[in-house]
Amino acid sequence: MKVAIITGITGQDGAYLSKFLLEKGYKVVGITRSINSSNLEGLDFLNILNEVELIEANVFDLSNIIRILEKYKPDEFYNLAAQSSVGLSFEQPIGTLEYNIISVANILEAIRIVGKGIKVYQSSSSEMFGNVPKYILPIEENFIIRPASPYAISKAAAHWISVNYREAYQIFVSSGILFNHESVLRRPNFVTKKIISGAIKIKAGKLDKLKLGNIAIKRDWGYAPNYVEAMWKMLNVKKPDDYIISTGEAHSLEEFVDKTFKYLNLDHNKFVITDTKLLRPVDLEIIYGNPTKAKTELGWNYQMSFDELITRLIEDEYRYLSWRKNKND
After folding, report:
1. Same-domain check for residues 127 and 208
2. Which pLDDT score is estimated for 189?
3. For a Cys staple, 222 with which of 66, 181, 279, 297, CB 3.0–4.6 Å?
């Protein structure tokens, strides 16, 4: 049985990746900063909480990571742990930089010391590329990186650390440059979760107005459960490399809002208001990627349309709300 260690297992991607790997027959070990009931809700919702082994660990402690590697002898290591909110990174730049950079360096150094045979997945981000001129879009793997937020800076640094360990120490480390990928397990501070849950509350008469920032931005939106398959595929090819995982299409946040409200037979113009406090100091106008390399080299194909994504997210949210109600009754 193959063994996989996942950092950030209690987050959106960690939960869906765990489910995917368990279905592949893996033993899944999850590293988390703290084990408490609120953090475990995603794993519980996917009905896999009792199938994974959870351990508390500090990724700032190199010796701690070394001991974990020596104990579990993993075949694969998926590093998904990060402060992953762009907005929050402007409020907490130092903490974001510290956590997202040092944790990656410690993990890769521990693997260099313990066993170079461990394959590593590093979670990079499309935010690294910053404001790319429209005329050269879509983004490809070899584009110049010019981050526009503390979060993006931290992910760019972690990305290049991974490349360096791959080239200098021959560690099998592949980076997934994932564009926006959403699910019902997104934290409440993420805008897609805020829109879906807010619209449903308005429909139920539990919320009067939904406050948003800049809804003119355009992003490449995908469905998270389909994206975790690409992570696994990156570690199951002959050579490590970096891959863009995206839909190849850009849609505005306003379009996301409009389609969500229309699905619920609501007019978003009556309920959505702009809150200047939610505007970011620097924001990307439009960004979308070219997933051709992942399609040709990994055999990863994304088929869900934008309309299907909206429908799935709303249906999943209703299912999640029903699950929480039954659990609390």
Report:
1. no
2. 85
3. 181
Element housing 218 (H / E): strand 218-219
* Cα 316 from Cα 329, distance rounded (Å): 20
Residue-number span of the structural domain to which 262 is assigned: 191-219+250-286+307-328
Domain check: are 226 and 215 in the same one? no
74 CB-side CA count, 13 A: 28
Query: For the chain, how many structural domains are there in total?
Result: 2
What residues contact residue 228 under an 8 Å CB cut-off, 6+ apart?
A: 13, 16, 17, 20
| 34 noted as active-site residue | no
Please tell me whether residues 268 and 168 are part of one structural domain.
no
In a shared domain, residues 61 and 121: yes
Listed residue (88, 80, 280, 111) closest to 181, CA to CA = 80
Give the type of residue at 275. D
């590329």: which residue's tokens?
Answer: 129
The active-site residue out of 123, 125, 126, 197 is 125
Helices assigned H by DSSP within the chain:
12-23, 41-45, 62-72, 86-91, 93-114, 150-169, 191-203, 224-234, 253-263, 292-293, 306-328
Is residue 121 annotated as part of the catalytic site, yes or no? Answer: no
Catalytic annotation present for 151: yes
Cβ atoms of 120 and 111 closer than 8 Å: yes
Query: What's the rounded Cα separation, in Å, for the pair 263 and 199?
Result: 10
Q: What is the pLDDT of residue 304?
A: 97
C-alpha span between 109 and 116 (Å, rounded):
10
63 and 96 together in one domain:
yes
**pLDDT by 10-residue block (mean), the chain, 329 residues:** 96 97 98 80 96 94 95 97 83 92 96 92 93 92 92 95 97 96 93 96 96 93 97 98 97 97 96 82 85 98 97 98 89
Give the domain CATH number at 44.
3.40.50.720
Of 99, 121, 127, 227, catalytic: 127
Residues 157 and 267 in one domain: no
